Each structure stands twice: as C-alpha cells, then as structure tokens.
Fold these 3 entries.
Entry 1:
Amino acid sequence: MAVRALLTAFVLLLATALASALISYESMRQDWRTSHMLFAHGWVEQNPRFTISGRANDVPLVCSEGMGRIRGAALTVLRDSAINNLSGRVIERLFVARYPRRKKLIRTLSWIERVAFASAVTYINSADHLRQAAANRRMAREYGYDER
C-alpha cells in the first residue's frame, strides 16, 4: 500500500515535467523531420544549433547528431521542470507546516504554479519548432516535394 501511494505521488509530482519534455521533444523532432524533406532538395538549415558550423543558413548536421541534440534539449526541459516540481513541493510542505489551516489553499496554489511553469516552458520550447514544421510542410507542398 505504501509503495503504491509513493508511486502515485511520484507520477503526479513528475507529470508536468514529463509532459513538458515529451511535447518539447516531439515539436523539435517534427521540425527536424520536416526540414529533411527540404534538405534533400538543396535547402540549408536556418537554425544555427543544427548546422555544422554553428551559423544559420548552413549545411545541417547529420541526422543522428541532430537527434542527439534534440534529445539533449528535451532532457534539459525535463531536468528544469523536475527541479521546479521538487522545489515547489518542498516550499509547499514548509507552508503547510507553518499554516496548517490553509492546507487546501497552499496545495492548490502549488499545483497552479507547477502547471503554469510547465505550460510556459513547453510553449517557449515548442512554439517556434511547431511553426517551423508547419512552414516546412507548406513549402514542401508548394514545391512538390513528397514527405518522407
């Protein structure tokens, strides 16, 4: 029974961290995958993080290295979100110990903070990649390139 409660608490504590990392990973992967349709036809990479030279408008990294960078970025999001969740939980416990009659309010505000942080991190890390993936698909359709 105690193990089940501990696992449930662990999953709930990390749920926002995992969601942020997975969404960030998928958005970067979509951007990378749709960019390769264009690379096959002579286009160059616009994102300097994914070029051989580290400058925009240059030759893209090989696929395995690009995916490695994407995984690293997603793991960074996971780390930052997990640290936020853990520190938020510690602060929540301190406040509950200090103000036991306000337990429900403190826990509610703590959840709101964790969800807001996860939402902001996810948006910051994903929005541009999702927009770029959509633009890549649009350009590929416009030029008649097939999606692989």
Entry 2:
Amino acid sequence: MRQTLFLLLGYPGSGKSTFSKQLSTVRDIIRVNSDELRRYMYDDIEAIRNTKNNPAVFGALDYVTEQLLSAGKSVLYDANNNRRRDRIASQKLAAKYDADIIIIWVKTPLETAKQREGERALEKNYVRIPAERYKQLIERLQEPEASERVIVIDGLLPFAEQLQSFDAQLANITLGGRTSQQ
C-alpha cells in the first residue's frame, strides 16, 4: 500500500474510533485521535468540552500527522472530518508528502449513532458531547464529492466483516477505481 492519509467521516457514535482502533492494530497505519489528544491536553471537563480549545487540539493533531507523513508513514486521522473544507486542508497536507488520501466513511443510522453516544456517556473518562454540539456535528456532515476517494464501512457490522470490506474497497481504489458501496 502506498503511503496514505486516511480521514474518518461519520456521525458521532457511528463507530469511527472503534473501527480505527482495530484497523490500526492489523494494518501498518498509525492512528492519531482528536478525542484522546484533547483528554491528554486538558484535565478539566469544561476545558475538554470547550470548542475554543479546538485550534490547539487540531494544531497538535495536524503537527503529529505531518511529522508521521514526513517520515513516510500512513496515518489514520481519527477525528470528525465531516466538512469538505477540512478534507481539502488535509488533501493539501497529503499532497505535500505525495501521499494518497482516502476517506473512510463509517455509515451508521443516525438513531443508532445517537444511542451509542448516550451509552458512551456512561463509560469512565468519556466526555459526552452536549446535545447542541452533537446536533451541529450532524448538520455539518457533507457527503464526499465525486472527486474524493471513499471507502464506505457499515457501522453495524462486526470488525471482521468491516475489515474484509475495507480491504476489498482499498484494492479497488489502488487499482484505479472508485468505490461507492452502499
């Protein structure tokens, strides 16, 4: 596989981080995660939730991503890449290091994603997304354009089936095709 910057797309609770954690253990891809970085940077729950801290969090995440790309590594950028403008910025970064860029769209029904988000709130050290912020994140989801290369993962399937689908779609992309499964 060529050096690649993978971007995740999907609702909060869709299974993006669950899939990316597992994928990074079975493929030669280094995962960087905005939620984990946010928790390392801030101890206070209000600071973790405060969107005014996003520039610092994403600045650090982008720095780490660039360092990994400059070292020739493939990176899985585990953050909400639902806006086209954010994906365009990542395309420029990937191009700087002649890396491919592929979106991994974890598709999950909205009601299931909302239910998962509610269940995660019960986990230790999980900072629940406030309802208004959750609504904003959903509204910002911009489907990929025809020019974007996309792997679609069913967020309801077990990982083994997701991995099989990922590998098949990746092979199709690397052979010059564009996948649009589902």
Entry 3:
Amino acid sequence: MEEKNRLLVVANETIAAHQLMEMIRRRAAEAPTEVLLVAPALTGRLQYWLSDEDAGDAAARARLGESLRNLDAAGIEARGAVGDADPLLAMDDAVRTFGPDEMIVATHAAGRSNWLERGLVAQARERFDMPIVHVEVLEPEIALTRMREAPDAQAPPRERHELRDWLLFILAGVLAIGGTVLTASFVLAGMSDTALVWWVIFGDLGLKIVAFVIIWIVFQRRARADRLDY
C-alpha cells in the first residue's frame, strides 16, 4: 500500500477560504494525502489569560465543520482538531500527534493578521523541520503563497508564554508568603486576638486562595490539538 503524504493545515478564520481549499485539493491530486486541519481556539487577550476559551472553541469547531464538509465532498481524507489558543502550541501538539510531512499555515493579509504581527510563520519555520507554505488570504478571491518569510526584526524570536507563566507563579508565591509574613508581623506588633482572627480568615487566607486560583489557572492551560474529535 502506498504511504500517504501527511499534510497539516493550521488556519485562523481563513480555514474555509476558497484559496486554501484549492491548495489542499491540488496537494491531494498530486499524491495520496491525509489531511489534518487545526483551527486554534481564537480568544481575546483577557480570555486568553483567564483560560476562557469556550467561545473561541465553539467558533473554531464551526469553521472546522464547514471546511471538513468541503473536503469530504471533494473526496479528500481529512480530520479536524481544535487547537490551543496559542497557535504555536497548537502546531506543536499537532506535529507531535500527527507527524506531518509538510505544513500549510493560512493567515489574513498583513495588517489584519495578529499571527503575522507576532511573527508566527517565521517562528514556525525556525522550529519545525519540514516544508512550510504560508498562504496569505488578501481578499475573498485573492491569495498570496509564500515559501519563505522576509526577516522581521520586530518579530519575537519565540513565544513568551513560558515567561508569563513564571511571572504568575512568582506572583502567587509573593501573595501566599506575603500573607504569612504579615500575620507574623501583626502578632509581633501585639494585634488583638479578635483583629488577628479576622485578618487570618479574610486577609491571610484570602491571599492564599488568590494564589491557589492563579496556580490553578496556569495549570488549566492545556494542549487542545490532542483531541482529534472530527
């Protein structure tokens, strides 16, 4: 049996774009191809920090469903997955679980694409050892295909969520330890027993609860692309 080419497609709202579908069809016509579509669960900045991806997850599922129906109608074997809100993490997960031979990344045009502003495609080319084609959807019927990205001095060399998580852990530690330090200070200062009890219940314990919630939020951020549920 001839081994199939494994094509990973990562796209935002452009996942149902006519140009992207046509490129996938051409790839499938050249050789037997198995396709995995990954749609990161796009969220706003506040939702991302709070790990509230429900709305982005639902929208990504809707986009995936439409695209998979189009590919099925064209006779192309394809699966879909909702990826992490961080597209680079979504790529990592998909590469690990799917083992693609090549990748297509579809974005909006420059100026509309947050992915391009963050230097996502350039980061992906540096991180993943495979051919990566960038499809930039300029208008509904116009697309620009890039095989290589121009160097972008403003693009971050890597995603900084690891730094963000460390800062959150440090904040949680400061809150938890700070509550204990304040309690000890109040005891040494001779605070009345009643006031001290109220402080421990509503102050020290409250700070520790906030610290726990912060740590829980960080650990709740998890990979989504493992769930190949389409």
